[in-house]
Q: What sequence folds into this?
């Protein structure tokens, strides 16, 4: 039970790796000392509050707004996903444009029906398109989740 | 009595109390907690969630230092806290301030009580 509690605190805590390690060690000592003095894990957990409450009170002392850090992390991930989508889409657009030119025969203005089959069976542009779409989806999901957390 | 004003007093004095406890002799988390619960019941029930954040802050400020020692009983380790030189200086300043603060507040209380008395 206490392993589960400690794991949850770790998840809720946004500190540097070293600070986090210290807090985790101390939390282990809290449980060990209390058990040594005849307390039950349940008693300790009751005293500590929820993992989130405990993590927030610790983070506050390090001058960090834990909820804000969590929000920032969400926003950054959303941005990365969004960027990935944008890059994938532009690669797709460029390759499509390139293809369209390749496919024109005799430099005619319009594309002909003659298709040049790629050496590979799968179309690279389709992969980039898929990456683009999934990136955009992830970005949207993350934004929704981050906004949802803000309201709480 | 557990209103906001009292909370403010407690908040302000807990750091000094912890410095006193740690300055008296090297001590560890659970001992600090039981000490507070045994002899400072007016402060309310001490919890790790209150004590540890303050310990982190005092350590950050360089007022206390700690060493890890293996703990035989639980197979893990125990963190023993002690005052740094800076911590000792700050505590002495705080104690000086506290006594003038106390007499200042007491002065107001006395003047209030004297004014009340004739009624």
A:
């Amino acid at each position: 039970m206490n392993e589960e509690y400690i794991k949850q605190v770790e998840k809720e805590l946004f500190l540097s790796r070293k600070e986090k390690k210290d807090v985790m060690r101390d939390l282990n000592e809290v449980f060990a000392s209390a058990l040594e003095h005849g307390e039950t894990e349940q008693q300790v957990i009751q005293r500590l509050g929820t993992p989130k409450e405990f993590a927030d009170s610790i983070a506050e002392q390090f001058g960090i707004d834990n909820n804000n850090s969590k929000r920032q992390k969400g926003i950054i991930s959303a941005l990365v996903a969004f960027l990935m989508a944008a890059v994938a889409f532009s690669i797709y657009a460029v390759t499509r444009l390139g293809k369209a030119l390749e496919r024109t025969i005799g430099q005619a203005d319009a594309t002909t029906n003659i298709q040049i089959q790629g050496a590979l069976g799968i179309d690279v542009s389709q992969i980039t398109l898929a990456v683009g779409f999934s990136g955009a989806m992830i970005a949207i999901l993350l934004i929704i989740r981050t906004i949802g957390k803000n309201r709480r | 009595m557990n209103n906001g004003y009292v909370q403010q007093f407690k908040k302000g004095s807990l750091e000094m109390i912890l410095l006193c406890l740690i300055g008296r002799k090297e001590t560890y988390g659970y001992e600090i907690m039981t000490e507070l619960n045994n002899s400072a019941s007016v402060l309310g029930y001490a919890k790790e969630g209150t004590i540890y954040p303050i310990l982190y802050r005092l350590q950050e400020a360089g007022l206390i230092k700690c060493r890890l020692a293996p703990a035989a009983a639980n197979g893990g380790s125990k963190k023993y806290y002690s005052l740094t030189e800076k911590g000792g200086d700050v505590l002495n300043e705080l104690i000086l301030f506290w006594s003038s603060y106390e007499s200042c507040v007491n002065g107001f209380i006395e003047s209030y009580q004297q004014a009340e008395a004739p009624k």
